[in-house]
Amino acid sequence: MNGKHFVGRRVSSLEFYDDIGSVTGVALLLDDNNEILSGNESGYVLEITCPYGTQAMANNILNAIQSKTYRGFRAQGAVLDPLAELGDGITIDGKYSVLAHRAIEFGAGHLSEIAAPGEHTLEHEFRYESPAQRELARKIAGTRSLISKTAEEISLLVETTGDLEDSIAKLAVTVDSIDLSVSNGTSSSTISLKKDGVVVASKTIRFTGGVVFESDLAEGNTVIDGSCIQTGTIDSDYIKLHGELTVHDYDGEATGSLGYIEGRDKDGDITYGIGIMASPSRGQCYVTGSGARMGYGSSTGVTCTSKNVSISSVNGYIYFNVGEHEFSFGSYGLAWIDDNGDVKYAKFE
Known about the structure:
About 5% of the residues lie in helices and about 50% in strands. It has two helices and 32 strands. The termini are far apart. The protein is rod-shaped, with a radius of gyration of 46 Å. It folds into three domains: about 5-135, no CATH class; about 140-200; about 205-315, no CATH class.
């Protein structure tokens, strides 16, 4: 490669394309959004894909080809050294160009069809990649890292491109913030530390170990583990409760529960509803789809349904007042105190 060959007029047919030039600039394409330019865009700009390009590289290339013109051609039946390679220089009919295409007709003389593409056929018909270009293409379809430093920011970027799934991880540090982000094109996670707060955003945030929150807003702290939130006060507009919530006294002893609980109906049978209960055999107040009940175990209770109100006492008495008079029911019957203060009885038959 990079050899030079003379063909002259030893061809059966020859066609030259319009010259392209002159070259006034070189652009090294780092990625889809960034490039390094040497020279200017007043004439033809040679664009080269090179993610590792530098300004010095662009300047050196421009110094070698500045003001040069590109001359395309096509020739049939050319007599050319069989060792000539694509990329070599070639002089044909007094004009110098590059050998970008060659098709050898094996036979007498081993004549060749040779060409350097015109402007509109450069990428489509005559795309040539040298071993170095193929290696570069594999690197582009891989992982790229970049560290940049300016007066305002220091940033670290790692990304995969090309045939791999596009992913970008970036860390940026400025005078008043630290930003960390990871993205794969369909989802992303970010952590932003600023002087006035911290912002965490992600589809899923997962903590391992204990998480402790402390604040000067109020004394105390909050501890969150895999199954418990331990804190002093919970202030919420809405709490969704499944099952029952156990209530403890100041010594930590369980005293009852509230929520969807187990209770007793007026006949002493187990039922379930929404309510408050000290224990299954103690005070309880709950409602179901059929009614409401307040009672003490299955011993005493008041049950309300859509049609009836019932008062029950299995082992004791039922008391009620009408005006200044007190009445009681028991297994003996009805008892009350009259206006003279005497106790009166009415036995059940």
